[in-house]
Specification:
The protein is an alpha+beta fold and 394 residues long. It has two domains: 164 residues, no CATH class; 204 residues, Nucleotidyltransferase, domain 5 (2-Layer Sandwich), CATH 3.30.420. Helices cover 32% and strands 21% of the residues. The protein has a five-stranded mixed β-sheet. The longest helix has 25 residues. The structure holds zinc ion. Zinc ion binds next to loops.
């Protein structure tokens, strides 16, 4: 997995001028080569790079532009078969590889990171100053490596350099329980320990920002999802189980539904959680969601009548709980059976098992008291190998 970070370019007019010139050159050349490669037959486009004799013979930058053009043509041929119009490259950006720039860690009063970049002349270099930001430093300290490629890009009249990081490989953690998470766009995210995350804020935020447009994907809802994913990973420090995404489309839904959920980034939270968990060595597994909110997690009785809106009551054993918590618990139970993880379940579920004298269909349990709004600070002290599901941990 690759991380990318955008760093602001702090340079004087002269240097910005150089970047502008390079971007114009890049744009011209990419379009020139797209024109050229557009006629290439499909079998030839299977290659990763254009054949040597068709690559730019001029400067190294032209060579890279030709590779970019090749990839553009290739991706369009692969994705949109039958597109007749030739693509046109209009972005203000260009990419450099290791032969055309170097990173310099050199600290002055204001700047602590420099890129010595190609200046457009043979052998010429310009030094462009940057400031490392918190997240970049965080990953560098964790042993991530900077990739040997950089992209300069103009966004809203400001120049940025996009750098790529390869995080250090983390071993998957062993002996960690699994928390089931039910992502629901009316209740937010609900987990199998009984926490409902973010419900009110989520709805309010969505209402407030429903009609706004955001550039560069800086949607406040996405930012809120980012925060939530981070909180979940930091709170539980364990594996996560999610539903396999089979819904998440708006087709065939009522007009009200489509209007209310107009600009929700479907699947974004799940993807974000996956990324962040992997970086820490936790697994994210997906289970079949069929019937998760209609099945009783205590006795296993499945019926559509068990659920009434947000309220779940088992028609067989009488177990009561919030419907999404039941869904999340079932997700955790399915994941634990399939992957041999211990499920984290709410106290209420474990107590019900005890009361009914039911031997749960699993080997291990980690039972935690469901906190009211935020999980308690001592949640992490819960022994992940806690077998006695009737004792309260923490
Ligand atoms: Zn039941």
């Amino acid at each position: 997995m690759k991380l990318s970070y955008k760093l602001k370019v702090y340079a004087n007019k002269g240097k910005i001028g150089v970047l502008e010139t390079l971007a114009r050159f890049w744009q011209k050349k990419v379009n020139y080569y797209i024109n050229f490669y557009w006629k290439a037959p499909d079998w030839e486009l299977k290659l990763n790079k254009p054949p040597k004799e068709f690559r730019g013979s001029g400067s190294k930058l032209e060579n890279l532009a030709s590779v970019k053009a090749w990839q553009t043509v290739k991706s369009i041929r692969n994705k949109k078969r039958g597109q007749k119009d030739k693509p046109v490259f209009r972005k203000d950006e260009f990419e450099l590889d290791e032969t055309l720039f170097t990173f310099e860690n050199f600290t002055t009063k204001e700047f602590d990171f420099w890129i010595k970049s190609y200046s457009g002349k043979r052998g010429g270099r310009i030094a462009i100053p940057f400031k490392k930001h918190r997240r970049l430093n965080y990953w560098l300290n964790k042993g991530a490596r900077l990739q040997k490629t950089v992209k300069f890009k103009k966004v809203n009249n400001n120049w940025y350099a996009i750098v790529y990081l390869q995080p250090k490989k983390v071993k998957t953690k062993q002996n960690v329980p699994v928390v089931g998470i039910d992502i629901d766009y009316t209740n937010g995210a609900v987990d199998s320990a009984g926490n409902i995350w973010f419900d009110k804020e989520w709805v309010a935020l969505r209402k407030r920002t429903k009609w706004r447009e955001y550039k560069n994907g800086n949607n406040p809802l996405k930012q809120a999802f980012n925060r939530l994913a981070k909180t979940l990973v930091n709170t539980y420090r364990c594996h996560f189980a999610l539903e396999k995404l089979n819904f998440k489309g708006k087709k065939g839904r009522s007009k009200k539904f489509r209007r209310d959920y107009k600009n929700l980034p479907y699947g974004y939270l799940a993807r974000r959680l996956e990324t962040l968990a992997h970086l820490e060595g936790f697994q994210v597994v997906r289970v079949n969601p069929a019937g998760t909110s209609q099945t009783c997690p205590v006795c296993g009785f499945k019926s559509r009548e068990n659920r009434n809106g947000d309220y779940f009551k088992c028609k067989d054993c009488g177990f009561k709980n919030q419907a999404d918590v039941v869904g999340a618990t079932n997700i955790a139970l399915r994941a634990s059976l399939r992957y041999r993880f211990q499920p984290v379940v709410a106290q209420a579920v474990a107590e019900e098992w005890g009361r009914q004298g039911i031997q749960p269909p699993l080997e291990y349990f980690a039972v935690c008291t469901p906190p009211q709004s935020r999980p308690p600070a001592d949640f992490r002290r819960c022994d992940p190998l806690c077998h006695t599901y009737l004792t309260t941990c923490g």
